[in-house]
């Protein structure tokens, strides 16, 4: 087995990116691994702090973008750097709020590939409480133009709804439904009373409170931690760069299917996802966070719809 490169995307939360990298070094004994941290135009002290934090650590490589390129293009900077400098067998693209604890994580990537060669792999991703499981997002999804038109409308309507909730000061009336409570200082906190993580089965959302123990092919994988093999890079250079933020894993699923590439979920690899740390850091008010999310994913869905039309979908 050759090199394994981890690509970590940072935007304004350098402590999270550092913790992710440190978790790799603390848990992995595999010798030939490198960590590429992409600072995506943070504009704060991230670059300075990361350089100081990892001074003398030759396995950490900092790639700096002068502006925020978004999720896909930012990740692709790190992916291109890793491919050019290390020729890795596998690239693990991880959000900064991912923590690796499984000691044989690297070895398992190769073991699974030898048994069932994959283009993209997603493992069992759990939340910090170890009660919610993010993968697979959906066992099967069929993308049609009508489906995407519906997604555009629904996400747009939700962005409008949260703007109205904020405008008319109705936040506290709906916060409990989203598992949000106020702390002693009036700040929004997730109170853990609501099961908000779901997965799609037979077109319906169900609670994702149980680990799926079997390996599954052709599933939609969560974008917070994806493993790319050389099979993927035989067809693509990285994520599709048309979007700025959100829906990247859906577009990946769609394009991979068009090329006949295999997306695999395996419970034999696992990591922890602290979930939406960057968004929650930038937007302390949960309505602002929801407006941000639904506004951006509406734009991404519109671009996804255009991509489908350009590819001849009817």
How would you describe this structure to a colleague?
This protein has 314 residues and is α/β, with parallel strands linked by helices. The protein is built from ten helices and 13 strands. It has a domain at 4-142 and 197-275: Spore Coat Polysaccharide Biosynthesis Protein SpsA, Chain A. Helices cover 40% and strands 22% of the residues. The strands form three sheets. Strands 1, 2, 3, 4, 5, 6, 11, 12 and 13 form a nine-stranded mixed β-sheet that branches. A two-stranded antiparallel ribbon has the order 7-8. Strands 9-10 form a two-stranded antiparallel ribbon. α2 links the parallel β2 and β3. It is globular, with a radius of gyration of 19 Å. The model has no long low-confidence stretch (mean pLDDT 91).
- Tell me the name of the CATH homologous superfamily of the domain at 4-142 and 197-275: Spore Coat Polysaccharide Biosynthesis Protein SpsA, Chain A
Shape: globular
Number of strands: 13
Order of helices and strands: EHEHEHEEHEHHEEEEEEHHEHH
Give the CATH class of the domain at 4-142 and 197-275.
Alpha Beta
Query: What is the residue-mean pLDDT, rounded to a whole number?
Result: 91
Estimate the helix proportion, in percent: 25-40%
| Radius of gyration, taken over Cα atoms and rounded to an integer in Å | 19 Å
Structural class: alpha/beta
List unreliable stretches of 5+ residues: none
Instruction: Tell me the major beta sheet.
Output: 9 strands, mixed
- Helix tally equals 10
Could you please say which CATH topology of the domain at 4-142 and 197-275 applies here? Spore Coat Polysaccharide Biosynthesis Protein SpsA, Chain A
């Amino acid at each position: 087995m050759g090199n394994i490169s981890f690509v970590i995307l940072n935007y304004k939360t350098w402590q999270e990116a550092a913790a992710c990298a440190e978790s790799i070094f603390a848990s992995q004994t595999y010798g030939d691994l490198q960590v590429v941290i992409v600072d995506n135009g943070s504009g704060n002290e991230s670059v300075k702090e990361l350089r100081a934090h990892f001074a003398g650590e030759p396995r950490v490589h900092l790639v700096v973008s002068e502006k925020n390129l978004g999720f896909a293009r930012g990740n692709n900077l790190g992916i291109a750097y890793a491919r050019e400098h290390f020729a890795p067998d596998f690239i693990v693209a991880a959000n900064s709020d991912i923590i690796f604890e499984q000691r044989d994580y690297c070895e398992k990537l190769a073991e699974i590939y030898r048994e069932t060669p994959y283009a993209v792999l997603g493992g069992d991703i759990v939340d910090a409480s170890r009660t919610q499981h993010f993968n697979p997002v959906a066992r099967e999804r069929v993308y049609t133009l009508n489906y995407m038109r519906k997604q555009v409308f629904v996400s747009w309507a939700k962005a409008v709804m949260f703007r109205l909730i904020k405008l008319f000061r109705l936040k506290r009336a709906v916060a409990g439904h989203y598992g949000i409570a106020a702390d002693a200082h009036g700040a929004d906190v997730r109170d853990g009373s609501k099961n908000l993580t779901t997965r799609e089965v037979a077109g319906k959302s169900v609670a994702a409170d149980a680990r799926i123990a079997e390996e599954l092919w052709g599933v939609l994988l969560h974008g917070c931690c994806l493993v790319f093999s050389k099979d993927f890079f035989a067809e693509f250079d990285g994520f599709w760069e048309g979007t700025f933020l959100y829906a990247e894993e859906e577009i990946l699923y769609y394009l991979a299917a068009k090329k006949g590439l295999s997306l695999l979920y395996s419970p034999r690899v696992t990591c922890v996802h602290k979930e939406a740390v960057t968004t929650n850091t930038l937007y302390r008010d949960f309505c602002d966070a929801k407006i941000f999310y639904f506004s951006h994913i509406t734009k991404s869905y519109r671009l996804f719809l255009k991509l489908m039309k350009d590819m001849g979908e009817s």
